[in-house]
Specification:
Length: 90
Amino acid sequence: MNETSQCEVYSETTNEWQFIASFSIRPEASPKLSSVDDQLYALGSCMWNEGDSIPDTRVECYDADKNEWIRKTGIEMFRSFQFVPASEEL
């Protein structure tokens, strides 16, 4: 199943929130939105699935004229490691 994330934008002109097209970054990835140079971007991150992290590194940009999200690139993700305390017998 291809899940999407709903998105709303606020219009200062009408003083209202309105739904726009959903982006394809999975909700479990805790996507973040950012506005840069009057462009709205959705950025993925890591999803947590029973202790494992699964990256969703997509970056999408909203095209207001077409009311759609366009995939731009991915984000480099560094692997994280789980550290276990060393024995006191060292």
